[in-house]
């Protein structure tokens, strides 16, 4: 199976052939994978080198000309390092584009903390109007990328990762989807966390919702799931900073008695490189760690 990043480069190269409004802006990362597209469309594939602020600035400038820019590099260099440019060159200027990241929270641990971005979605939450997609499988990434490319002048962030679920689920770029139904609580599994959540909740009487589009937050589906189950306990499991979406869940259920537990990447920096699976376990996001915390949270109500 190809990776999400490999799927992104192949699909986007084809989209450049199909849609003359699209342009791609790179900062060296994945530039080799766009070599063919750059030969065919030299005016719409731009590599600015290792200049991430310029990457975003060029993307904003292309959007002002009427193009639909797709910007790509590691999440830490796409959202965190050039955040001022994201805020001003897209938000303040009132233009749209697609930010497609790689690396996620800790896909490449040996790259060190400079290449980790567990706070990217929380940072974008400080801005208005961003749609955020977090696919859990390359097939889902392709669907959401095509949706983002065709999304008019909207501002869209697509968060790619090496962590994937075994099988794709139907996604449509909008709300949450019910994967399992129960009556003791609702667990929202975001993107590549789904398989671990399903393993962790095996035998527990809970509803599992699958979220690949997390912004806008699907308050209606969460309300419907908690209402159908007559459940007041909600757990949100995210592959980035713990608690990023808890305020949205609390807002969705503000008129009901409820509890919300946010599970995700902890704030403490893990200074040993390790591997992706070791980081998941250290943050309690492997099936064992999730089982302990979800079951313990549900027992706290009984």
From TrEMBL:
Q: What is the lineage of its organism?
A: Bacteria, Bacillati, Actinomycetota, Actinomycetes, Kitasatosporales
Q: What is this protein called?
A: Transketolase
Query: Cross-referenced InterPro entries, in alphabetical order?
Result: PDH/Transketolase, THDP-binding, Transketo_C/PFOR_II, Transketolase-like_Pyr-bd
Query: Which regions span the lipid bilayer?
Result: none
- Supply the Pfam families for this chain: Transket_pyr
Task: Read off the Gene3D superfamilies from this record.
Answer: 3.40.50.920, 3.40.50.970
- Using the record for this protein, list the coiled-coil segments as residue ranges, or answer none: none
User: In this protein, which residues make up the domain named Transketolase-like pyrimidine-binding?
Assistant: 2-164
